[in-house]
Amino acid sequence: MHIPTVAELQARGEQPELLYWVGCAASFDQRAQRTARALAKILTHAGIRFAILGQEESCTGDPARRAGNEFLFQLMALKNIQTLNQYQIQTIVTACPHCFNTLKNEYPDLGGRYTVWHHTQFIYRLIRDGKIKLKPISSEALQLVTYHDSCYLGRGNGIYDAPRDILQALQLKIVEMAHHRSRGMCCGAGGAQMWKEEEKGTTRVNIARTQEALDTGSRTLAAACPFCHTMLYDGVKYAGKEEEVEVKDIAEIVAEHLQ
Amino acid sequence: MLLAQILFVALLVTAITRFSRMVRKIRRNILLGRDERISGDRWQRWKNVLLLAFGQKKMFRNWIPAVLHLFVYLGFIIINIEIVEIILDGVLGTHRLFLPYLKGVYPVFISAFEVLAVLVIVACAVFLIRRNILHVKRFTQPEMTRWPRQDANNILIFEIILMLLFLTMNTSDQALQMHHAPHYVHTGRFLISYPLAQEFSHLSNGSLVALERGAWWLHIAGVLFFLNYLPYSKHFHILLAFPNTYYASLDPKSRMPVMESIVPEVRNMLGLPEEAASDGSSMPAHFGARDVFDLSWRHLLAAYSCTECGRCTAACPANLTGKKLSPRKIMMDTRDRLEEVGRNIDQHGQFVDDGKSLLNYISEEELRACTTCQACVEECPVSISPLAIILELRRYLVMEAAQTPQDWNAMFTSIENNGAPWAFPPDQRDQWTASL
After folding, report:
1. How far apart are CA A173 and CA B172, in angstroms?
2. CB neighbours (10 Å) of residue B189?
3. Using one digit for the tens of pLDDT, what is the confidence trace for B342-369?
4. Is B34 helix (H, G, I), strand (E, B) or coil?
5. Using CB atoms and an 8 Å cut-off, which of residues 304-333 of chain B contact chain A?
C-alpha cells in the first residue's frame, strides 16, 4: 500500500479530499507509528482519497508554545500554514489531539483556516455512515476496555463521545476509570512535559493515572493520543503488567477489526 | 426617634462611602493589567453569568458543598430584600415599612427569610466543621496559611451571627406583638420566630424592646461591617463572580491566545509580506508576564474573584502527584502581589519599583510542573483560568529571562532544525509508510 503525498498528487494534477496530518509522534515513535499505519488502513478501507504532506510536514509548534516559546511556535505555524495554503488544503484529519487543537483552534489566528477532524471523530463518522464494516468480535476477544480521555480532546475540545461510541460499535464493554470525561486525569505529557523530567513530587503523573486504569481490571487501555499512549505504556511497564495489559490507540483497535 | 434616624443615616453613609472607596481602589488595581478587548458572543457571556454565577451550575460537580453553598447563596440574595426594608425603616424611622403594602403576604415572605436564615446557620456550621474538624484536604494545603483559614472562619462565624441576630430581632418582635406593645404592629405569625417567641413572652416589654432594638442595630451594623470586610477578604467573590463569568474566555479551554505583538517580526523573518495594518499594538513591556502589569485586566479581575475553594488544586494532576504547583496558589499569589502593588501606589502616588515581581511569589518549579491539562479551568465554579496566568509567566521565563530547562532547549533546537521536537531528520518522517 502506498500513501501518496500531496505533492505527488499535485504533480498528477489531483487534489486529495483529505489531508492526513501525521504529527511528529506518529511519524517517529515506533509505537505511535502503529497508529499511523492503522489510520492509513482505515482511510484506505473506506475509500477516502487522502494524502500526507510527507517530508513537508513539520511540528505544529505546540510543545514550544506550551513551554513558553511563542516565537518558535509562530515560526512553525506560519511555515506550516504556508505549506497547507499552497496546496489549498481544506480538510485535515489527525490522530494527535495536540496537533488537532493547534491546527483547529490556534492556526486561524495566524491565517490558517481548515476543517479539522480528530481521527476518532472521523472514524466514528465512517462507522456511522457505513463506510467501514467491522468484523464481529469473537467471544474471547469480547473483553473489558477502559478509555483514557486526552486533555486536549476532552476538556480542550469537548470530544468525549466519539472515542467511546467507536468502542461501543465494536461491542466492547467500557469500564470507566475513577476520573473520566471532564474529570479525566492527565497522562502527564502535555504542556511540553514530554520533553523534560517531571518536577519533584511523590509519584509520577503517568504512574498514578495508569494505576487508575489498571484498577478497572481492563485488559485493554484505549488511548486516542500518541503521548497518552506512551505515558500509559510506560505506566503499565512500571507496574510490571505489560504481559497482561495492552495499550492501544482506538485506530489500532478499529483497524484490527476491519472486515 | 430623630436621633436614631440621624445616627442610622450617619452609619449608613460612612459604611457606603468607605466601601465605595475600597471598591474604587480594587478597580484601579485591576485596571493596572494590560488592556484586552473583549470580543465574541455577548449572548453566550450572559448565558454564562446566568448558569454559573446565578445558577451555580459548576458548584454541582460536587454535591454536598453545592447544596450547602446554595443555602448560603439564596440566603444572601433573598435576605437582601429584607435589608432594603431595614434600611428604609432606619432612615424613615418607621417599623416594618412593607407590611401595609404586602399585608397577608408579608408574614409569608418573612417566614421564608427565616427558613433561609436557619439553613444558612446549618450550612455555615457544617462548613466550619469541614474546615476545622474534618480537615477536608483542599482546605489544609500549604497555601492555606493562617490568614486564608482565618478569613474563611471569620466569614462563616459572621454569617451565623448575622442570622442569629435576624432571628432574635423577629422573635422579640413577635413576643412584643403578643403583648400588644405600642409601635409593634401586628404582622401575623412568622414560621420560626413565632414558636420561639412563646419562650420569650414572659419577658417584660422593656426587655423585649431592648432585645429587639439591640438585635436590629447589631444586625444592620453587622451587615455594614461585613460589607466593608469584603474587599479585604476572599469573600469578595460574591460580587466579582458575576463580572468574572461575563468576561471569562469563550474559547476552547485548550486554545492559547496568540501573542499579536510579535507576529509582524516573525512574518518578517520568514520574508512574508506585512499583513494589513495591525491594530496598532506596540511591543509589550515584557514578553509574557513578569509581573501583574503584564497580565490582562481579566486575569487580575479573576484573582479578586477567587474564593480559594481549591477545587482547581484538588483536580490538578501535578498537585495530586505531590508537585509544588497549586492552581489556587497561582490565583492567591497574583492577588497578593497586586495588593502589594496597590499599597505601593497608595503610598507613593504612583508605582515605585520595589525590586519585586510576581515571580517572587510564584516559583519556576511550580510553573514548570503544569501539564496544561485544563483541569483547573474546568473545575473553577466561576470560570477562572489559573492556566492562562501560568502560560503567560512561562512565556516570560523562556522568551525574556531565558530560564529554560536544558531539555526544553534541546527540544526547541530540534524543532527549529528538524521540524520535530525529537532529533530525527525530516527525511525519516515518512518512513512509517514503508512497512504498510
Report:
1. 64
2. 14
3. 999 999 999 999 999 999 999 999 999 9
4. strand
5. 315, 317-318, 320-325
Complex-level ipTM: 0.96
Query: Do the chains contact at B399 and A66, CB–CB below 8 Å?
Result: no
Report the percent of chain B where pLDDT is more than 70: 98
Locate B197 and state its grid cell: 417567641
Cell of residue A170, nine digits:
465494536
Tell me which residues of chain A, numbers 30 to 59, contact chain B at a CB-CB cutoff of 8 Å. 33, 36-37, 40-41, 52, 54-55, 57-59
Residue of A nearest to B403 (CA): A68
**What's the first-to-final CA gap in chain B, in angstroms?**
94
Strand ranges across the sheet with A91-94: A50-51, A18-21, A91-94, A115-118
Verify whether the Cβ–Cβ distance A68 to B373 is below 8 Å.
no
Whole-model pTM? 0.95
- pLDDT tens string B219-254: 999 999 999 999 999 999 999 999 999 999 999 999
Q: Do A24 and B420 touch (CB under 8 A)?
A: yes
Q: Is the CB of A205 inside 8 Å of chain B's CB atoms?
A: yes
Would you call A5 and B258 a contact, using CB atoms and an 8 Å cutoff? Answer: no
- Judged by a CB distance cut-off of 8 A, whether residue A92 touches chain B is no
> What are the chain A neighbours of B253 within 8 Å (beta carbons)?
155-156
With beta carbons less than 8 A apart as the criterion, state whether B400 and A6 touch. Answer: no
> Which among A126, A128, A122, A87 is positioned nearest to A104, based on CA atoms?
A122
DSSP state of B49: I
Residues 6+ apart with CB under 8 A from B197: B171, B172, B174, B175, B177, B178
Q: Are strands A246-249 and A220-223 parallel, antiparallel or unpaired?
A: parallel
Distance between CA A33 and CA B326 in Å, rounded?
36
**Distance to chain A for B313, nearest Cα, Å:** 13
Are the C-beta atoms of residues B33 and B389 closer than 8 Å to each other? no
pLDDT at A21: 98
Residues 197-256 of B with CB under 8 A from A: 251-256
Reply yes or no on whether the pLDDT at B410 is more than 90: yes
At B318, the pLDDT band (50, 70, 90 cuts) reads very high
The three-class DSSP label of residue B37 is: coil
Local structure of B283: helix, strand or coil: coil
Alpha helices in B201-296 (DSSP H): 205-229, 237-247, 263-269
Chain A nearest-CA distance from B327, in A, is: 15
Cβ distance B429 to A27 less than 8 Å, yes or no, reads yes
With an 8 Å Cβ cutoff, is A193 touching chain B? yes
CB A106 within 8 A of CB A135: no
Q: What share of chain A is helix, strand, coil (3-state, %, to 5)?
A: 50, 10, 40
- For the record, the C-alpha cell of B270 comes out as 520568514
| pLDDT of A54 over the 90 cut | yes
Query: Helix, strand, coil shares of chain B as percentages rounded to 5?
Result: 70, 0, 30
Could you give phi then psi for residue A52, rounded to 5 degrees? -115, 165
Average pLDDT, chain A: 96
CB contact under 8 A, A208 and B321: yes
